[in-house]
């Protein structure tokens, strides 16, 4: 059945045109109930073992409206809820209202155990309704949902009898909609009414979203947010600045946004609770600049990691609401010339579920209490404020990591208000803490859904390359191709070969796993890979972007097995000059899978003269020449402290930790991968100038590099950063003959001054902005790791289309908007993967040092007003040494142990033997322990304390070490264990 509707629409020129839309209605849309014989259906979703509650003791299906999904998605996701009918009306509304909720809903639909069925009520002849005159779109949609519920109720009566009758229950928190449904004879409940009837799962009441958990405190000085129109006008006329709020990792009261001020991208600082004005890390905010008299002349340089847990109880009233606070750190006005501002509006909330634990001091109930109470949840992410939740399970949840969601943040509440979602497990348990860090960094880590796995080759392990695969591919199985990877690597996505040419040049090939042969566009497998974005590497596990069958087997370029590849093949002169480059799909058979160490041994062992070894030596010589050319162009050699753990085979606990060792072969592989990425970028841009997926590295802002340059002036060095080449040359000159680690440390700190490299769509920027600053490359992309990066999958598709003019490619390859949206998602996933990896290192470092006391040499990497940060080269770890004997926020201490000198950015203390100064790059000796005297028994942190230079009252003394075994080591790791007794 075809229905048409028409309406008049005015064009931009003012002309009126008639628009006719066709709407198809069908009779063959089935109900998907497994016992139904009326519908000609296959694979029914809804079970006859439907929901049962104390309030509705008969089997029934649930039909939530749009607002229930939007506000109570945590309830809907609970395992106790199943057999849910999602109306097409609701499904489409959610897709337009919230992409995160829509993605969570899709995950529920894909979970076969949940039995969620999307019913196309908008195309069913008996459920479709037209909008009435003067009826709002919202009212029409509510009526459409009621119409579909009524049809289902009638339909179920036809297919069941009184003994096995199944009802349909509408869930809606809209009182008007619920009243109308009940008047029409439908069964309708609010979400609270419904879950209160689920007596077997009482925790569902705690999970209810609620924006009025706590009565407000009118003394809290939060200002009302501006309206949307006021914000829009302010941004247009330049009185307001838009940006994403970033809270300092070391000071939860210090935020910033990056915005254009006076024609240049500038960091605007936002200091203190009143100026942060209820914004949370990641929110897109509108900021109003403060008068220049309140701008900063020097960085705030204060460590405030978290609020004093010991003072939580003192700051709470009997009802759980905090009293007015006059934190000296909040009200301090610091002189500087850096712009400061205050948040006057929220443009977009980017709230997510947060992991945390309940503060013991906020719990008033006893173990036997069954009443709800307001408690404070302390998020694991120190940048997130405390969160109020109301729960009846406070005592049971003590000692647990829990997941909570924020519902609202009224202006008269010091902290946001939210609700409990679920318990994650016991605090301190390694598996629990690993799940926490994955959730905190938004890493999709669930098992691959069945529909994703269904997209894998049916042959599975028996899959092999056949003659059919050779069609359109170059057969390169005769070449001496080999891979060089870290030890234990199973997802091998790149391999190399070289062979001399008759003219004296060399043919060099980079061969990359042809993932796109298996991962086709618009499949569930492709969608899952796009959502995951990247493989995440933790210390003890790997969260794969692709199912293991692909990543570790069918795509992996293992030796002595035929594999499909995408090859980039150059002709290079002996001086590593490119004569030409060719791209082709290929079939290869790697002759060896080497580790970096094994390849290095082959290069160094002069007795080895086989063709494979000779080829690796040639590649090594060419790589060195390629590296020199990059350096001459201005590429920067940066550094970061990276550690490697040795794990116990059974417990997977760390038994040793050390800095990663880099060999020549690491650089060998890197140089050819960089060359391939540049060559591919040039090729795809020539074909798709407006929609290529590229990667850029913006030049650094001058502020941080100026600070670093000033810090090394006393050492007679300076940092020039007008160009990447000037920066590279100034870093090369900064060498101390008596301290070989100094140059690496300087490069580590320089790296931290850099902007993040990001993916982007070529059609959104001018060509001069494509440049990769760190690599000194005019154009760059990612091509060489498609097993672990989805960006490379897209680039493979672009390259395939670029080298095959007759190939039909999808519209997604030329859609600029879609490509830029994908770039944003990939940038987020890439950044979160990096942070998750670092958190995993931190977790395992804490486990390694638990029960140990070690003294190690370290370097000061940052000086703060109330402490300094130390990097210990042996372990590649950093920690904060506070400049007071207790903590950074202790107010009882009247005489500071050290004084901050803003003129030379140092901490100074007058001791009986003279003035002791601590400044950037200073060598110190620190004591490393894990703080096991945990607040609420919930949080474990590595603790660093100063040993040398000795500052009375601050440095660790003999009294703190008595009767403890310690290990004293130098930078080289040499040392001995000794016992300090009375």
TrEMBL record:
Record-level GO cellular component terms: cytoplasmic exosome (RNase complex); nuclear exosome (RNase complex); nucleolus
Domain PIN: 60-179
Subcellular location: Cytoplasm; Nucleus, Nucleolus
GO molecular function terms listed in the Swiss-Prot or TrEMBL record: 3'-5'-RNA exonuclease activity; endonuclease activity; RNA binding
Domain RNB as annotated: residue spans: 473-805
Phylogenetic placement of the source organism: Eukaryota, Fungi, Fungi incertae sedis, Mucoromycota, Glomeromycotina
Annotated stretches, region: Disordered: 308-334
SMART domains given in the database record: PINc, RNB
Protein name: Ribosomal RNA-processing protein 44
Organism in which the protein naturally occurs: Gigaspora margarita
InterPro entries to which the protein is assigned, alphabetical: Dis3_CSD2, NA-bd_OB-fold, PIN-like_dom_sf, PIN_dom, RNase_II/R, RNase_II/R_CS, RNR_Ribonuclease, Rrp44_CSD1
Keyword terms of this UniProt record: Cytoplasm, Endonuclease, Exonuclease, Exosome, Hydrolase, Nuclease, Nucleus, RNA-binding, rRNA processing
One GO BP annotation of this record: rRNA processing
Main location (coarse class): cytoplasm
UniProt key word RNA-binding: yes
UniProt feature, compositional bias: Basic and acidic residues: 315-326
Sequence similarity: Belongs to the RNR ribonuclease family.
Alphabetized Pfam families for the sequence: OB_Dis3, PIN_4, RNB, Rrp44_CSD1, Rrp44_S1
Keyword RNA-binding applies: yes
Essential cofactor(s): Mg(2+)
């Amino acid at each position: 059945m075809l229905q048409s509707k028409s309406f008049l629409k005015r064009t931009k020129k003012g002309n009126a045109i008639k628009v006719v839309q066709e709407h198809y209605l069908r009779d063959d849309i089935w109900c998907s109930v497994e016992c139904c014989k009326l519908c000609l259906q296959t694979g029914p979703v809804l079970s006859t073992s439907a929901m049962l509650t104390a309030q509705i003791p008969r089997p029934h299906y649930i039909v939530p409206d749009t607002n229930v999904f939007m506000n109570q998605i945590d309830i809907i996701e609970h395992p106790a809820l199943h057999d849910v009918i999602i109306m097409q009306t609701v499904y489409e509304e959610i897709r337009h209202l919230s992409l995160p909720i829509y993605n969570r809903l899709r995950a529920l639909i894909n979970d076969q155990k949940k039995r969620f069925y999307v019913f196309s009520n908008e195309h069913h002849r008996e459920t479709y309704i037209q909008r009435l005159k003067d009826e709002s779109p919202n009212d029409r949609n509510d009526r459409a949902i009621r119409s579909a519920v009524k049809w289902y109720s009638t339909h179920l009566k036809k297919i069941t009898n009184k003994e096995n009758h199944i009802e349909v229950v509408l869930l809606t928190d809209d009182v008007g909609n619920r009243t109308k449904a009940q008047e029409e004879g439908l069964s309708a409940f609010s979400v609270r009414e419904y879950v209160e009837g689920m007596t077997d799962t009482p925790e569902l009441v705690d999970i209810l979203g609620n924006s009025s958990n706590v009565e407000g405190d009118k003394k809290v000085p939060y200002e009302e947010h501006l309206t949307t129109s006021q914000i829009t006008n302010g941004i247009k006329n330049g009185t307001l600045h838009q940006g994403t709020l970033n809270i300092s990792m070391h000071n939860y009261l210090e935020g910033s946004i990056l915005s254009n001020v006076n024609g240049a991208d500038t960091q605007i600082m936002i200091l203190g609770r009143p100026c942060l004005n209820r914004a949370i890390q990641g929110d897109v905010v509108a900021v109003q600049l403060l008068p220049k008299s309140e701008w900063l002349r020097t960085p705030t340089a204060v460590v405030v990691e978290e609020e004093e847990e010991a003072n939580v109880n003192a700051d709470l009233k009997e009802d759980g609401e905090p009293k007015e606070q006059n934190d000296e750190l909040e009200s301090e006005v610091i002189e500087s010339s850096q712009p400061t501002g205050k948040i006057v509006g929220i443009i977009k909330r980017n709230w997510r579920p947060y992991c945390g634990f309940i503060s013991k001091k906020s719990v008033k109930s006893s173990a036997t209490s069954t009443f709800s109470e307001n408690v404070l949840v302390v998020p694991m992410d120190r940048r997130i404020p405390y969160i109020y939740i109301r729960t009846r399970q406070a005592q049971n949840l003590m000692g647990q990591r829990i997941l909570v969601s924020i519902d609202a943040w009224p202006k008269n509440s010091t902290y946001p208000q939210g609700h409990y979602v679920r318990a994650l497990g016991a605090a301190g348990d390694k598996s629990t803490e690993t799940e926490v860090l994955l959730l905190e960094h938004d890493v999709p880590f669930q098992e691959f859904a069945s529909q994703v796995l269904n997209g894998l080759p049916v042959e599975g392990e028996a899959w092999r390359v056949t003659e059919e695969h050779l069609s359109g591919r170059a057969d390169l199985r005769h070449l001496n191709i080999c891979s060089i990877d870290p030890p234990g690597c199973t997802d091998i996505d790149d391999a190399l070969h070289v062979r001399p040419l008759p003219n004296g040049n060399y043919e060099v090939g980079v061969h990359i796993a042809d993932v796109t042969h298996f991962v086709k566009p618009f499949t569930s497998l492709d969608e899952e890979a796009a959502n995951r974005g990247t493989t995440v590497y933790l210390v003890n596990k790997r969260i794969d972007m692709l199912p293991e069958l692909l990543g570790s087997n069918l795509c992996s370029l293992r030796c002595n097995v035929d594999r499909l590849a995408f090859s980039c093949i150059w002709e290079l002169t002996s001086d590593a000059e490119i004569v030409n480059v060719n791209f082709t799909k290929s079939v290869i058979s790697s002759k060896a899978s080497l580790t970096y160490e094994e390849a290095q041994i082959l290069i160094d062992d002069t007795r080895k003269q086989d063709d494979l070894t000779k080829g690796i030596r040639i590649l090594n010589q060419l790589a060195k020449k390629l590296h020199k050319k990059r350096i001459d162009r201005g590429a920067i050699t940066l550094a970061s402290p990276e550690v490697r753990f040795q794990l116990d085979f059974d417990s997977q606990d760390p038994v040793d930790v050390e800095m990663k060792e880099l060999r020549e072969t690491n650089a060998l592989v890197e140089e050819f991968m960089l060359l391939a990425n540049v060559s591919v970028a040039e090729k795809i841009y020539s074909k798709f100038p407006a929609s290529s997926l590229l990667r850029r590295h913006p030049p650094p802002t001058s502020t941080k590099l100026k600070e670093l340059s000033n810090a090394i002036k006393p050492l007679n060095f300076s940092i020039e950063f007008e160009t990447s080449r000037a920066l590279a040359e100034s870093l090369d000159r900064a060498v101390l003959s008596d301290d070989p680690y100094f140059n690496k440390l300087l490069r580590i700190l320089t790296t931290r001054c850099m902007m993040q490299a990001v993916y982007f769509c070529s059609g959104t920027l001018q060509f001069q902005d494509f440049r990769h600053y760190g690599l000194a490359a005019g154009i760059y992309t990612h091509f060489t790791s498609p097993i672990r990066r989805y960006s490379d999958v897209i680039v493979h598709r672009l390259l395939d289309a670029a080298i095959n003019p007759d190939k039909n490619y999808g519209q997604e390859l030329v859609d600029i908007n879609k490509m830029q949206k994908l770039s944003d998602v990939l940038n987020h996933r890439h950044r979160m993967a990096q942070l998750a990896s670092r958190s995993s290192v931190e977790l395992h470092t804490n486990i390694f040092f638990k029960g140990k006391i070690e003294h190690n040499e370290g370097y000061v990497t940052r000086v703060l007003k109330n402490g300094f940060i130390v990097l210990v080269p042996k372990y590649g770890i950093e920690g904060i040494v506070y400049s007071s004997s207790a903590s950074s926020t202790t107010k009882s201490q009247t005489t500071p142990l050290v004084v901050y000198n803003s003129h030379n950015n140092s901490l100074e203390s007058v001791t009986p033997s003279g003035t002791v100064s601590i400044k950037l790059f200073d060598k110190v000796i620190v004591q490393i322990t894990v703080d096991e005297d945990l607040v609420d028994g919930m949080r474990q942190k590595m603790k660093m304390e100063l040993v040398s230079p000795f500052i009375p009252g601050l440095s660790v003394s003999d009294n703190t070490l008595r009767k403890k075994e310690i290990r004293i080591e130098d930078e080289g790791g040499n040392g001995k264990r000794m016992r300090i007794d009375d």
